Amino acid sequence: MYRFKGFDSAQCGDSMSALEAMVNAWMEGEHPRIRYMCQSMRGEHILLSFVYEDSRELEQRVSAQTQSSITGGLPRFFDDEFTDDHPTSPRIPATPPPMH
Prior knowledge:
There is one protein chain. The chain is of the alpha+beta class and 100 residues long. The chain is 33% helix and 26% strand. It has helices spanning 16-30, 55-72; strands spanning 2-8, 33-42, 45-53. The chain has a three-stranded antiparallel beta sheet. The longest helix is centred in the middle third of the chain and has 18 residues, at 55-72. The model has no long low-confidence stretch (mean pLDDT 81). Residues 63-100 are annotated as: Disordered.
């Protein structure tokens, strides 16, 4: 799920180093997977907007999917009895048959 986070330089007295520190602290604490970033002006203030995925949420989803594929088994792609010379082989020909 995507989330939104905004930073306004007015929150830190329009100090670029303080704004930088706020953004860095957020990134270090949350480890977001940033999908989109935008910088814009609001009067004399800088607005930074981020659309991101929460990396912990993402890791939990991947972990759950991995766990379900391990416990649920993997789909079977090959039939042990399949042979190329089987008359009802469901193979798609490399070239389509000619049109009559």
